[in-house]
Specification:
With 501 residues, this protein is an alpha+beta fold. Among the domains are: 93 residues; 86 residues, Immunoglobulin-like (Sandwich), CATH 2.60.40; 98 residues, no CATH class. Helix content is 27%, strand content 23%. The strands form 3 sheets. Strands 1, 8, 14, 15, 16, 17, 18, 19, 20 and 21 form a 10-stranded antiparallel sheet that branches. It has a 6-stranded antiparallel sheet with strand order 4-5-6-13-9-10, with no helix packed on it. A hairpin with a 2-residue loop joins β9 and β10. The longest helix is centred in the first third of the chain and has 19 residues. The mean pLDDT is 97.
């Protein structure tokens, strides 16, 4: 931007956005090392912000949000309410024409945040703001923020969420589209938006304690987020389309992943996000432990006076068998809440936006020390309350047949089409695995689908195979790979949604 006085172009510059990222980095560094050197620099900057902005001072807001969640993280490590108040000030000022010229819906600055009920504008800006709103709703017990962020979440999961968990339908403005506007070839689904969607849904879970938010988090994590980075970790998608014709250069002028972009937000956001994944596996409240994600892992957890070691042994998401070993320091009564994923309970997403073509007859099984238990599910979790001893073993088995998914009739791009899913993983057909154009493949409802583990393919994965039709009705074989792994073998055609007839 052109040189000028400090803060002179907050709508388009990224001064406050950059500060917010610095605060988040400083808090992460402090938590990881215990050192305050970086944190002290961030606090000096935040103190400057507090002296400059607020009632009776500058009333402008950043064009691009994230300083809000950064300030809240500073509050949580310092307990200095000044930073929490600054975060709420920046949120309260959005849509308030007193003190600044409104930036409009592109920056979610068209109406007060407590009056917003639909996801609009730039998708990354939006979800960073919604994460901040969820923080304010939780920490300040603000019912107006809670009501607004709940309504916006319902709008996204019911009308604006891709099957991959991606958000942001339009290249124009990197933005949300209208309700049910979910094109495939031209879908945007910025990698940063997927990351922001995970941050937001994690906060919504912490706020409400419901598994449906982790369902969205998981769908985004295993599909629309990790698709944004190559298996080698050194090239990236900025947008993540759900269909490619091998010609439209959707990725900032490229047909495949690139090592860098003029705007570097996606590569750098991936590097800050990946180390945070362990934070989403477990949670606790009072004497209740929550097992949210099924990841081979080990953790030491303190819940009040209860100390325990927990570990998981699993090959999830390739296999639905999960073994959880509970090792309390001493025998204790507490509750272990295990998420039963929505995908295993006939809910593709927590709305009617997508649904399975047929129900699955296979049953979920749950055991503790080889004793079968009933699934008494509340808010998406099955709770097991008992006196736990060292070495107690919980075994959960989630059947993972290949499932066909249909979209809501209002989603024009997906009419007469089907998507293939196994467990939480969305699949796609790619040119290199198929003898015909994957844009013309027809998958009849009665075509049998089988799985095959391929250790030699794309770091090892399960593929889906079946006999399908070409557009003339001739029989051909289909091979589909997990969506996250596409575009590693040269540019070409790809499709998540395939014709049914």
């Amino acid at each position: 931007m052109e040189p000028g006085p400090r803060w002179h172009n907050l709508g388009s510059s990224h001064e406050l956005y950059n500060s917010g990222h610095m605060y988040e980095a400083a808090v992460a560094h402090y938590k990881a090392t215990g050192k305050r050197n970086f944190l002290n620099i961030a606090l000096k900057n935040a103190d400057l912000i507090a002296r400059t902005f607020g009632p009776g001072k500058k009333l402008e807001v950043p064009g691009h949000q994230i300083i809000e969640t950064g300030l809240i993280k500073l509050y949580l490590v310092t307990n200095d309410k000044k930073y929490l108040d600054m975060a709420k000030f920046f949120l309260d000022q959005r849509g308030n024409a007193e003190g600044h010229e409104l930036y409009g819906s592109y920056s979610q600055d068209h109406k007060l945040v407590t009056q917003q009920d639909e996801a609009v504008g730039h998708a990354v800006r939006a979800v960073y703001m919604y994460a901040g709103m969820a923080d304010i709703a939780a920490i300040m017990n603000d019912s107006s923020y809670l009501k607004a962020v709940d309504k916006i979440w319902e709008n996204v999961v019911s009308r604006k969420l891709y099957i991959t968990g991606g958000i942001g339908a339009r290249h124009d403005g990197e933005s949300f589209g209208d309700d049910y506007e979910l094109p495939n070839l031209t879908s945007y689904n910025e990698t940063c938006a997927a990351i922001g969607n995970i941050y937001w849904n994690h906060r919504m879970f912490l706020l409400h304690g419901e598994a449906k938010y982790i369902d969205v988090l998981e769908r985004t994590l295993y599909n629309g987020m990790i698709s944004g980075v190559s298996l080698e970790g050194n090239s990236f998608f900025y947008p993540n389309c759900l269909q490619s014709d091998g010609k439209y250069k959707f990725n900032q002028g490229s047909l495949t992943r690139k090592p860098w972009f003029d705007c570097s937000c996606c590569p750098t956001n991936v590097t800050r996000f990946i180390p945070s994944v362990p934070n989403y596996i477990y949670a606790h409240k009072g004497d209740s432990l929550y097992v949210n994600l099924f990841v081979a892992s080990e953790a030491n957890i303190e819940m009040g006076n209860i100390r325990l070691n927990i570990s998981e042994e699993t090959k999830y998401p390739w296999d639905g068998k999960i073994k959880i070993i509970i090792n309390p320091e001493k025998d204790e009564i507490f509750t272990v809440n295990i998420r039963i994923p929505g995908w295993a309970l006939e809910k593709v997403v927590p709305s009617d936006l997508y649904h399975y073509l047929k129900t699955n007859g296979e049953k979920i099984t749950l055991k503790v020390n080889d004793e079968a238990l009933d699934l008494n599910i509340n808010k998406g979790f099955t709770g097991i309350t008992r006196r736990w001893s060292k070495g107690d073993i919980i075994e959960l088995d989630l059947p993972m047949p290949v499932r066909r998914v249909l979209a809501h009739e209002e989603v024009k791009s997906d009419r007469n089409k089907v998507a293939l899913i196994r467990g939480p993983i969305v699949y796609c057909a790619e040119w290199v695995d198929n003898d015909i154009s994957v844009l013309d493949v027809v998958v009849p409802d009665n075509a049998e689908m089988k799985t095959e583990y391929r250790e030699d393919l794309l770091n090892g994965l399960i593929i889906i195979k079946g006999n399908v039709l070409d557009k003339e009705g001739g029989k051909v074989e289909l091979a589909a790979i997990p969506y996250y792994a596409w575009s590693h073998r040269g540019p070409g055609e790809m499709a998540v949604w395939l014709y049914r007839e």
